[in-house]
C-alpha cells in the first residue's frame, strides 16, 4: 500500500518524507487556499516545491471544467515536473480529459468519486488513480469503506490497471480498514500516518527495557 499525504503544507510534507514511508502527495484547490497559495505563478511554483521534497507522485488539480481548457491546464501542470499527476474531477468533460491524457502519456488522478459507477468510468477512461472520498461519504451517514470494497471487486473482475487511491481519509482506522480491503494507496493527514505508530504496550515495554538496561549498566 502506498502512503500519500493529503496537504499542501510544506512542513508537514517534509516531516512525512523524513519518516521514510511517504510515496506521494495529494493536493486540491481547498488545501492550496488553506496554505495561502494564490495566483497562477505561486500555485505552479508550490507544486514544484512539493515535488522537490518528495520522491513520489504529486497530484495537482485542474480548475477548468471544460474539456479543451482542462487539457490545456493539465498539459501545463504535467510539464512542470515528471512527478506531477494531473487531478481531474469526475464530470463528463473530465472523463473525456482522462481519456485524452491517458492516450497522450499523462498520468491522472480522477477525483470526487462517490460511486462504483463513477470509478468504473474513470478506469475505462484510463485514469492512473481513482480517488473515492470515503470520509465525505461517512460524513453523510453512508459507508465509505463499502465503496472501496465495491471498486476493488469491479477492478479485480476486469484487471483494470487504475489504482484505488482511498481519499478523504480522516483517521488511522480508515488507513487500516483500507489496507484490509486492498486499496492500492491511501491519502490522509499526517496524523493518520502517525497514529499507526502508537501502542501503549510499546511505550511501557520500551520504558521497562531501558530501566532494566540502566540497572545493570550504570
Ligand atoms: C483527495 O485527494 C482530496 O484532496 C481529499 O482527500 C479530500 O479530503 P477531505 O474530504 O478531508 O477534504
Task: Please tally the helical runs, counting DSSP H or I stretches of 4 or more residues.
Answer: 11
Q: Please give the largest β-sheet.
A: 8 strands, parallel, barrel
**Helix amount, in percent?**
40-55%
**Ligand set:** erythose-4-phosphate
**Number of E-state strands:** 8
Strand order of the largest sheet: 1-2-3-4-5-6-7-8
Summarize the structure.
Keywords: Cytoplasm, Pentose shunt, Schiff base, Transferase. The protein is globular. By secondary structure, it is an alpha/beta fold.
Description:
With 218 residues, this protein is an alpha/beta fold. 55% of the residues lie in helices and 17% in strands. The protein has helices at 10-19, 29-34, 40-53, 67-80, 92-103, 116-124, 134-139, 144-158, 172-181, 190-194, 200-217, and strands spanning 2-6, 24-26, 57-61, 84-89, 108-113, 129-132, 163-166, 185-188. It has an eight-stranded parallel beta barrel with strand order 1-2-3-4-5-6-7-8, surrounded by six helices. Helix 4 (67-80) crosses helix 5, helix 6 (116-124) packs parallel to helix 8 and helix 8 (144-158) runs parallel beside helix 9 (172-181). The longest helix has 18 residues, at 200-217. The chain is globular and about 70 Å long. The structure holds erythose-4-phosphate. Erythose-4-phosphate (E4P) is lined by residues 6, 26, 28, 111, 131, 133, 135-136, 167-168, 187.
Amino acid at each position: 500500500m502506498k502512503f500519500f499525504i493529503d496537504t499542501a503544507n510544506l512542513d508537514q510534507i517534509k516531516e512525512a518524507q523524513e519518516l521514510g514511508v511517504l510515496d506521494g502527495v495529494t493536493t486540491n484547490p481547498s488545501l492550496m487556499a488553506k496554505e495561502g497559495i494564490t495566483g497562477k505563478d505561486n500555485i505552479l511554483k508550490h507544486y514544484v516545491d512539493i515535488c522537490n521534497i518528495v520522491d513520489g507522485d504529486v497530484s495537482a488539480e485542474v480548475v477548468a471544467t471544460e474539456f479543451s481548457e482542462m487539457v490545456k491546464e493539465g498539459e501545463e501542470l504535467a510539464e512542470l515536473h515528471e512527478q506531477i499527476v494531473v487531478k481531474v474531477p469526475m464530470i463528463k468533460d473530465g472523463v473525456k480529459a482522462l481519456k485524452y491524457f491517458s492516450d497522450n502519456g499523462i498520468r491522472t488522478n480522477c477525483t470526487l468519486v462517490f460511486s462504483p459507477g463513477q470509478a468504473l468510468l474513470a478506469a475505462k477512461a484510463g485514469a492512473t488513480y481513482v480517488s473515492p472520498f470515503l470520509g465525505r461519504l461517512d460524513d453523510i451517514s453512508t459507508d465509505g469503506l463499502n465503496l472501496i470494497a465495491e471498486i476493488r471487486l469491479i477492478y479485480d473482475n476486469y484487471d483494470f490497471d487504475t489504482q484505488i487511491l482511498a481519499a478523504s481519509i480522516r483517521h488511522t482506522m480508515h488507513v487500516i480498514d483500507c489496507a484490509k480491503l486492498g486499496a492500492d494507496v491511501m491519502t490522509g493527514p499526517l496524523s493518520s500516518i502517525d497514529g499507526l505508530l502508537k501502542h501503549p504496550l510499546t511505550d511501557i515495554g520500551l520504558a521497562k527495557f531501558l530501566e532494566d538496561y540502566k540497572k545493570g549498566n550504570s
